[in-house]
Amino acid sequence: MVDEERLQLELTPRERTMLEMLREELGLDSEEEAMRLILRQAFQRLTVTCPTCGHNARVTDEDVAHCASCLSILRLSEGLWMVARKDKP
Ligand SMILES: [Zn+2]
């Protein structure tokens, strides 16, 4: 069982409206679920799964990502992330 950290957010009325609209759009029951989904989607845009080690590699350019775990440099080629180079530690 993982302890979940409680995060309290103060939303402005405008942000509240935005979240409510997104919740409806996503067809979710709670705004909390909507927040989690949006967070996951944003994270997925920022990272890719490293094919070498399975850790999250950070996307640093449109078609380049760096894995801080195994130091691979990944390149997007025809829709697939391939290892372009592996730096020696
Ligand atoms: Zn890696």
Question: Please, could you describe this protein's structure?
Answer:
- This protein is α+β, with helices and mostly antiparallel strands and 89 residues long.
- It has 2 domains: 11-46; 50-89.
- Helices cover 34% and strands 28% of the residues.
- The chain contains 2 helices and 5 strands, in the order ααβββββ.
- It has helices at residues 13-26, 31-46, and strands at residues 47-49, 56-61, 64-66, 72-77, 80-86.
- The protein has a 5-stranded antiparallel beta sheet.
- α1 (13-26) packs across α2.
- The longest helix is centred in the middle third of the chain and has 16 residues, at 31-46.
- The model has no long low-confidence stretch (mean pLDDT 90).
- Residues 50, 52-53, 55, 57, 67, 69-70, 72 line the site of zinc ion.
Order of helices and strands: HHEEEEE
The number of domains: 2
Structure ligands? zinc ion
Helix-and-strand structural type: alpha+beta
Alpha-carbon distance between the two ends: 35 Å
User: How much strand content do the residues show?
Assistant: 25-35%
The average pLDDT score comes to 90
Shape: elongated
Would you count the extended β strands for me? 5
Share in helix: 25-40%
Q: What is the alpha-carbon Rg in Å?
A: 18 Å
| Major sheet | 5 strands, antiparallel
